[in-house]
Design a protein that fits this description.
The chain is α+β, with helices and mostly antiparallel strands. It is built from three helices and two strands, in the order βαβαα. The protein binds nicotinamide-adenine-dinucleotide. The site of nicotinamide-adenine-dinucleotide has 14 residues, from helix 1.
Length: about 80
């Protein structure tokens, strides 16, 4: 899904940002979605490991987004950026 970056420059504090149950909880889904829209996330959770897992998901998403942006750049610019 395309990212609009409409939350660039914003910080979102998400409580309960981890997931302890099966699948993806509401807090984690919210944190990932806001990050994808460009916000910086403070992922807060009683369970530190669960918050770390969400933070890693956000970092992975950013890396994926960066790679996709680089692929969309013209070849000349891509090599200059390395
Ligand atoms: N996920 C769904 O589709 C869904 C649907 C309807 C209702 N619910 C309800 O929503 C609630 C959350 O479930 P979930 O599946 O979204 O997430 P989850 O239970 O997987 O995760 C909730 C997270 O909140 C953290 N947490 C709990 N209390 C906290 C506190 N005081 N401060 C900081 N962090 C705290 C937990 O450590 C956990 O990581 C549950 O009551 C669930 O029954 C969930």
């Amino acid at each position: 899904m395309a990212m609009s970056n409409r939350l660039a420059g914003k910080v979102a504090i998400v409580t309960g940002a981890g997931t302890v149950a099966e699948g993806m909880g509401n807090g984690k889904a919210t944190a990932l979605l806001l990050a994808r829209e460009g916000a910086r996330i403070a992922a807060v959770d009683l369970n530190r490991a669960a918050a770390e897992t969400t933070a890693e998901g956000i970092r992975k998403g950013r890396r994926r987004g960066d790679r996709a942006r680089r692929r969309r750049q013209p070849l000349g610019r891509r090599s200059r950026d390395r």
